[in-house]
From TrEMBL:
Protein name (database record): Amine oxidase domain-containing protein
Domain Amine oxidase: 2-288
PANTHER family, per database record: PROTOPORPHYRINOGEN OXIDASE (PTHR42923), ZETA-CAROTENE DESATURASE, CHLOROPLASTIC_CHROMOPLASTIC (PTHR42923:SF41)
A Pfam family the protein falls into: Amino_oxidase
A single GO molecular function term of this UniProt record: oxidoreductase activity
Amino acid sequence: MLTIFQLFAVRTEASQLRLLIGAPGEYMLKPMVEYIEARGGRLHLRRGVRALACRIDENSGQERVFGVHIRQSASMPLGDESTTTFVPADLVVAAVDVPGIQRLIPETWCEQHPYFANIMRLETVPVITVQLRFDGWVTELADGAPHTGQARGLDNLLYSADADFSCFADLAVTSPVDYYRPGQGSLLQCVITPAEPYLRLVDAEIVGRTCAQVYELFPSARNLRCIWSNVVKLGQSLYREKPGADRFRPSQRSPIGNLYLAGSYTQQDYIDSQEGAVRSGRLAALAIVEDLLDLLSDPSVKHPIEPAPPSSASAREFI
């Protein structure tokens, strides 16, 4: 919480966080897919990277990634690793979470590079997302706010140091296209992290504790009823922010010349979150552009990499 409040204090324009008007699949992921495919990219959905393919580059003498091994098909059982498909690559961006990157790093890299050894020292914390639908407007600060045919309340992502959920939002207010329901009220989405004390609790108890804390934060909502709820548990999610752990977070540029990392656990000036993941992706893109410009300006390189046009048969692969 201290990190986020320090950022808001220094960059006042960052204190207003706009959410999507509806579900992420429709309003964020779908436009991304269309953008990528329109430019010759190809997505391998639900395939999962099983290993990085590495070898020593004959020209530089340095180890490089020349492709990835992915599940042969989305219909294969998750435990069946007998057959994979190889996807060649000139450059790889590993945009995964902490458990994901720890599975992909070869053991030899940890022995050779402190960069990768430090990543293996990162720990994760469980996260629980609780959704609560009420019969009125929770973040509307006026007592007894009536239904008026529109959502009422605080249109922002909210943070609190006085509840077990570190951040929350009323999706009926922030993203009304898909989450506003006529005749119903707030749909609070509350993120509990670290969530170890809650993991063994049944959903009903988690909902009860979360509702009680909501009423403490918004006393004017104590007469409202929770009419629907949903609980999602992730055993491993965000990296554990503990004293001394920050120095283990990697930069986006790795010691392997054509491998870049992205993810909110990497070094960026925001917290471990979706917003932090986006910021890390931009930093990874910046590192790639800088390295390619250096390569293009190097007179010793006989055949510099040229950007492939959208019609090129060399498609960009997204997994």
